[in-house]
Design goal:
Length: about 325
């Protein structure tokens, strides 16, 4: 029996029009362009300013572009998974909202929350549905409106995050293209160092939690950085060793765009030259679940059928992982 793999057959992306530069940010919090660029590598980030719009707004934009580019009708879609940590509402799932706005009627849909590893986890999940033969067309969305949970008076967090969304189509392939392997890991100790203090069932919203600014991202930078540098590199190198791949065999590393130092450390451990690393952190910042698909969208025209990509991410939880992907199509 011919093995079925899940191949990416198209991609759509969206970032809001409004751009928050480092110079503008420095008027809101005690920071400078030089400080941010030297420590994080971010020059600007896109912010969703539309009144009353949330993560689903960006997800819909990305999905609609994906459907148009792949010339796919909504009736053909079997499943939509949305990776996000900034859902429109606690419930229903943002995937439900995106599906309704796009007009998906025959598909089922749900959210995945794995921090900045969310898109990686969702891609792995969607791939299994395709590999099983149960579904033919699966959409994976990575989208976050991080500006909704960022405290712009907190210098340790405010320069890092931006808003954006990306979406990919997964379809069956029998030519050995698509998702080849995945390594997904997590360690719950990370919950102490990176989380949102209030707004959940343990600490529901009150006047006190709002006054104490507990509905924003809380991060202890040093342990998060230490874990991220180690785990993203470890899992990427592990994937290479598992499949006897050298740096020459890898066309691109697709790393989570959290910090240039983390990206550079991962590439160095893998033995990859800078030109083999997808980087767009300077213009988007960390869009959490959106970083990987936004990277692929930016580099789509440079990819060729059969190219080996390693997608690698690290996020809250802690969560981390790597996916070995063989690209399935030439530029369209």
């Amino acid at each position: 029996m011919t093995k079925i793999t899940a191949a990416i057959t198209g991609i759509g992306a969206y970032v809001p029009d409004f751009i928050l530069t480092n110079d503008e940010l420095s008027k809101m919090v005690d920071t400078t362009d030089e400080w941010i660029m030297s420590r994080i590598g971010i020059k600007e980030r896109h912010i969703l300013k539309e009144e009353g719009e949330g993560t689903s707004f960006m997800g819909v934009k990305a999905v609609n572009e994906l459907l148009e580019k792949t010339q796919t009708s909504v009736e053909e879609i079997d499943l939509l998974i949305c990776a996000t940590v900034t859902p429109d509402h606690v419930f229903p799932a943002t995937a439900n909202i995106i599906a309704d706005k796009v007009g998906l009627k025959g598909a089922f849909h749900f959210d995945v929350n794995a921090g900045c590893s969310g898109f990686l986890y969702a891609l792995a999940t969607g791939a299994r549905f395709v590999e099983s033969g149960q579904y033919k067309k699966v959409i994976i969305v990575g989208a976050d409106k991080m500006s909704s949970i960022v405290d712009y008076t907190d210098r340790s967090v405010s320069p890092i995050f931006g808003d954006g969304a990306g979406a990919v189509m997964l379809e069956p392939n029998t030519d050995g293209l698509g998702v080849i392997d995945m390594i997904l890991e997590s360690d719950g100790v990370g919950r102490h160092y990176l989380h949102q203090k209030a707004g959940g069932s343990v600490k529901p919203s009150t006047h006190e939690t709002i006054d104490n600014r507990e509905h924003f991202v809380f991060q202890e930078g040093k342990p998060v950085f230490k874990w991220a540098v180690s785990k993203m590199a470890d899992v990427s190198v592990e994937m290479m060793k598992k499949h006897n791949l050298t740096a020459d065999d890898i066309h691109y590393l697709v790393p989570h765009q959290a910090n240039m130092r983390i990206i550079s450390a991962t590439a160095k451990r893998m033995g990859l030259a800078p030109e083999k690393v997808m980087i767009n952190i300077e213009k988007y910042g960390n869009t959490t679940a959106g970083t990987l698909p936004l990277c692929i969208a930016d580099y789509e025209n440079e990819l060729r059928k059969g190219d080996n990509l390693i997608l690698s991410a690290f996020g809250a939880g802690f969560t981390w992982g790597a996916i070995l992907l063989k690209w399935a199509y030439d530029p369209k």
